[in-house]
Amino acid sequence: MDLRLDPNSPDPLHRQIVDQIRHQVATGRLVAGDRLFPVRSLAGQLRVNVNTVARAYLELEKAGVVSTAAGKGTFVAGEAPAKVADFRQGRLKDLLGRAMLEALSLGYTQEQIEGALALQLARWGELRASSGDAPSEEAPHPSSPSVSALCIAGSHDLALDLLIGQLSRSRPELSVASSYVGSLAGLMALQRGEAQVAGCHLLDEETGEYNVPFVRRILPGEEVLMVNLVHRQQGLMVAKGNPKGIQGIEHLARPGVIVVNRQKGAGTRVLLDLRLRQLGISPENLQGYDHEVSTHTAVAAAVAQGAADVGLGILPAAKAMDLDFLSLATERFDLAIPMSHYETSEVAPLVAALRSKAFKSVVRELGGYDTSDTGVVVATTGLPAHAA
């Protein structure tokens, strides 16, 4: 049992002991039947008054986490894990509640708070994933008769992460699976019937049009609605202070500049390749061009951790990793939805959430997004564009 007390913490010492023992029980480091240190022994180790430890043990016993037998000591109780799980859930609500109240008291809006939380979650999630600490995701079980399944494939965006999160909270009976495989692969998943929605931001070099030319080529003859998610800023993400002095795509070919790239088929990769062709720069001249990752936050994490000097991505991802951002273009990110899926019980709630004021407010707080067309059917592959 390893306990460490912080005398500068606002939590009393006995409360710190209680919380740490509960945590060790909840995580399996202490199991039913394990004996705790005697009161005097633990007090000596922690250099606190014996009454502090005695008070902590008494609180744990009242909560049913430990039990004490005269002359035998204090042990972890048999039903402790369930009790600790309830406590931890309550403790989490208390911590988040206090943080929310403090932020509100300082004048932040609910949308600002949710936007800041989304950026922090993106940062922590990507850093955990890069360190190998992130838990593996379980695949949804659409075969269950009580679960509806919505499958979204294609390009990654933090706004899409937020949309999926809001949808999951408001419609827990709807299982949502997202696969960030790039814009082209997302459209191919639609073509194979493996997804109902594909996120895409593909700029056609010949026509200058977004998405529709690619949809027509991949799903010929099928009516597909392009529902706008956001217009967003794409740019170069670099470390704070821009130590390599990077000012544009042409600087990516400089000696000593290491690039991190998106995977083949990603709209961001398509944009980078287009800009390189326009400048007459061969990808072979970019060090790190073959270093591929699958999300904007992964690009930002690579730059933040020093694995690369620069990567092309979106402003919110740069903000999440505290990077500098050099804007290059504003692009349209759409959700491609075949008409055959548009009004189904799986997709209709997604579109409703997309059009909600709450979603648009939170997205705007992330920065770098224009929501003026969010939720609008900006084009179709079979009918004239119209606003929904």
Describe what you observe in this structure.
By secondary structure, the chain is of the alpha/beta class. The protein contains 14 helices and twelve strands. It has helices at residues 13-26, 39-46, 50-62, 80-105, 110-131, 158-170, 183-191, 212-218, 267-279, 296-304, 315-320, 339-342, 347-354, 357-366; strands at 66-69, 73-76, 148-154, 174-180, 197-200, 224-238, 259-262, 292-293, 310-314, 324-338, 369-370, 377-380. Strands 3, 4, 5, 6, 7, 8, 9, 10, 11 and 12 form a ten-stranded mixed sheet that branches. Strands 1-2 form a two-stranded antiparallel ribbon. The longest helix is centred in the N-terminal third of the chain and has 26 residues, at 80-105. The model is unreliable at 134-147 and 384-388 (pLDDT under 50).
List the helices and strands and how they pair.
Elements lengths: L12 H14 L12 H8 L3 H13 L3 E4 L3 E4 L3 H26 L4 H22 L16 E7 L3 H13 L3 E7 L2 H9 L5 E4 L11 H7 L5 E15 L20 E4 L4 H13 L12 E2 L2 H9 L5 E5 H6 L3 E15 H4 L4 H8 L2 H10 L2 E2 L6 E4 L8
Parallel strand pairs: 3-4, 3-5, 7-8, 7-9
Antiparallel strand pairs: 1-2, 5-10, 6-9, 6-10, 6-11, 6-12
Tags for this model:
elongated; alpha/beta; 388 residues; 10-stranded mixed β-sheet
**In sequence order, what are the helices and strands, one letter per element?**
HHHEEHHEHEHEHEEHEHEHEHHHEE
Q: Low-confidence runs (pLDDT<50, min 5 residues)?
A: 134-147, 384-388
Average pLDDT, all residues: 84
Number of strands: 12
Report the structural category: alpha/beta
Number of helical regions:
14
